[in-house]
Amino acid sequence: xxTATVTAASTLSWLHSFGGTQNEATKVADRNRVFVVFAQKxxxxxxxxxxxxxxxxxxxxxxxxxxxxxxxxxxxxxxGKAQIITPALLKEMKMEDERIExxxxxxxxxxxxxxxxxxxxxxxxxxxxxxxxKQIFGSVTxxxxxxxxKAQLQRDVxxxxxxxxxxxxxxEYIAELKLHPEVTARVRPALSAFCFSLGRTRYKIRSNFKxxxxxxxxxx
Length: 220
Fold this sequence. Notes:
The protein has helices at residues 2-32, 69-76, 87-121, 142-153; strands spanning 46-51, 64-68, 82-84, 123-125, 162-163, 171-172, 175-180, 183-191, 193-205, 208-219. The chain is of the alpha+beta class.
């Protein structure tokens, strides 16, 4: 009986010892466990905007940009330099772009029609006093050509559009009219002269009189 009691006590002691060791091992494992926490960065808030005027170091008028919300709220919006892009605004911008493109096309087509008129007219005759041989007195300028176009075709042309070679002799020349960035008309200013006799006159050289023919040259 005593032997059984000792054995039972030994068994309990062993079980207790085993249980304690297991608990200690569990505690050690808990202490060694590593928890990894990822820090999530705070998302930066931005705004999609359109510039209403040029902004130095940022962009040009009409440009679409993404900017920081604070920059828009504290500076761009209060100063009237930008506004938030909305679906309605995008639609309005698209319609305005289409209108501008249509207007550009209309202006270009008008310039093409005007160029065709200029180039089918033929030569534009320029009147100047005739000089010796083929020479004329003075020269023909861009303003002269503009005035002749106005007189012949009733069309106003800015003389700054005219590219004219130097004209100091009779003949036919080629001038260019820049009617549009993509349209240039080529016109032909022409000078022709003839001389006719008005009879004879006398002049004195060293007490001697000589008679010479008198000619007048005019530009047609």
